[in-house]
Amino acid sequence: MKVQIPLLFFLISIILYSCEPEIKENERTAIEGTVIDFEGNAIPNTPIKVKTQNLLLGEGSTDNIGSFKFTSLQSKFDELTINVNTEGGNSSFGTYSIIYSNKRLQQGYNLSDITLRRKATLLFNIEKTSSENNTLNWSLQYTEPFCEIYDDEETSQNTSRCYETTSLIEVLDTTNPNFESEFFSVQNSTVQFTYQLNDAEPQTILIELTEATNFYEFEY
Description:
By secondary structure, the protein is mainly β.
């Protein structure tokens, strides 16, 4: 049997609508706090968005003294994410997210002080200049420019992944002698570059990220 196009669109819309999170009627929650940098200075014009399952419930931004307070819709789902500086935010700073899962929604969220770290970019380059058949084992350790706080009432876990250290390990040889990439970290942090040329003892170089954009080149 052939289904008419208008009826088909109607059925699809019903399916999509049933998958969307439901909003509680006439229920709101207050979102407030302060956004500061690592030195305690206020960060104005920082966007804050409240979501559940990618549905926007409310949004606001910080004022000249870094404070924010706005009203958000309530969802029937016991899941809520508060994103700070994640979408259309200040590119000079990292991001911050608080994820509530399996947790009864509150009538108000006072987030107090939220600290954003200034971002730093490392333009990192390794170039083979020797004619010898060398093998270079190397790794890079640096701080990630974001913070994620997880609050799960069902598992009684309150964990975080906040400005953690991450690592990259690579091997360069005659078939793949060079490497070039950019890494996003935080200002006033240290990147640890460790390398081993053939069977020599491993060596470590510390790269200080003092600027918004930093350059480092290594030749072997």
